[in-house]
Amino acid sequence: MSRIAAVAGLLFLNVMPDALAVTPESQRLTDRGIDQAANGNYRAAIASYSKAIVADPTNAQAWHERGMARLELEQDQQAIGDFEQALKLDPAFPGAREWLAKALAGRGDHPRAAEACLAHLRADPLGKSYMGVSPWDWAECAEQFALAGDRARAIQLLEEYFAEYAPQVTYRRSDETAPMRTLARLYDEAGAPEKAAEMRRRARASPHKVPADDQDPK
Prior knowledge:
Elements: H1 3-13, H2 24-38, H3 42-55, H4 60-72, H5 76-89, H6 96-106, H7 110-123, H8 135-147, H9 151-165, H10 178-189, H11 193-205, H12 211-215
Helix pairs in contact: 1-4, 2-3, 2-4, 3-4, 4-5, 5-6, 6-7, 7-8, 8-9, 8-10, 9-10, 10-11
């Protein structure tokens, strides 16, 4: 099973019952698609999700899952359309904004990716629909703003993260130094070497540091 399929399964378990209020035939076809995707049969899964959408165009889950399957086949542009439609039907659909951001980033559309991942973080900053606060998601969102040419906003986002959300990281502590590395680099680029050095010291002192934290030459 791929990482995307595994994440999709976890998100499915967290979908609220109201999100499943679709026609029985559409739900049956969606469930079949999920099983096919779990076994790596992404083209078959896409066909099942497409039939589910025909059976009930309001089935946000079918749109979302088809987008996930399309990402597996590197059909990023089509996946973007599916995630956007899922969000039109259910603006709070778990994971849709996060994966929309990833698909946009894959296409090099960093401004839209930044706004999509920010919307994802704003909608659920504590990660209640998944596994708690995600340091990696905050770092990736800041990276998208930086790639979009808005370094100031990237720095502001990570400063907010460290002030309000970093103390609440629980299950994802293995990723806790990712935003430290990102913010250190951004501080360097902004001409704030002392702040950058402090971030690097924090990363190296972390019990969850990774080799990249020791390899940073500065």
